[in-house]
Amino acid sequence: MDSPLRSIHVVAGVITDPRGRVLLARRGEDSDLAGLWEFPGGKREPGETSEEALIRELQEELGIDVEVGEALIEVPQEYPGKRLRLEVRAIPSWTGTPRGREGQALTWVAPDRLARYSMPSADVPVVGALRQPDRYLVTPEPGSDPATWRRSLQRALEAGIGRVQLRARGLPADAAAALARVVADDCRQAGAGLLLNRDIALAAELGTGVQLGSEQLAGLRGRPLPAGQPVGASCHDLDELRQAQALGCDFAVLGPVHETATHPGAATLGWDGFVALREQVALPIYAIGGLAPADLPTARRHGAQGIAAIRSLWPS
User: Fold this and answer.
1) Residue 264 CA to chain centroid, in angstroms?
2) What's the CATH class of domain 135-313?
3) pTM for the complete prediction?
4) In terms of DSSP bridges, do strands 41-43 and 6-15 run parallel, antiparallel, or are they unpaired?
5) What's the burial of 20, exposed, middle or buried (CB within 10 Å: 0-12/13-18/19+)?
6) Is 249:283 a contact under the CB 8 Å cutoff?
């Protein structure tokens, strides 16, 4: 029988300077994952709170005194021989001059450049949590009243939705393409990202992103759109998540976490099942299935980028 993996709880901080840059530390040559960049912090010791551990670690490692703020995300990640829980907290204020007191290199990075740095698997979803929206609206089918449908979409954008997946599979191809052009303009004006459901060719033409269906993943040999045009993948199991990662997708959508009104009785992951898959890949992952904005804190505690939904994010 295999022995259980060693469990480690690490607390890290997102430290920013007056220019909005984020501090990263490079792992030393004598550590595992040597040379990779990470959010600074360290192990939480028995008897410590997360706040106490992070204050101690950042004083020992960087020589700064910090105020520990809100929880941003907790990422479960399995590594060879251990199971890591990376708890990430905001650092709203700090004093002192950060320096690598243990010989580690430090660098200040503009947020839009974080993804260029090679990081341990657990840190990659943290970048997603900092840079990508926490709510992903999947539109209902336009139906027979596209004018009312579009007004609902515009209300969702006005309410702050930052990422939209257009589903219009019930429309003829020319009507779906015409609607995609209109919706792309609406999203662009609102500063929101748009992904088209499964239509790689139209996404390439319009400069939008694409949400790949799970059935498309195995047939692709590389990322279907260039960097700058987001690629998401709808996944239900570990093989699909690994394929999405291998293709270079920007994020995945995983579920269903809970039962939904549209698929009563369908098998669900639950949060334990979500975590068991989440910890096997280094991808930002939206949880989907019976979730609403009120579930965002729970989703983040289980390593999710946020939630994806139709009903709970679509204005009634």
Assistant:
1) 27
2) alpha beta
3) 0.95
4) antiparallel
5) exposed
6) yes
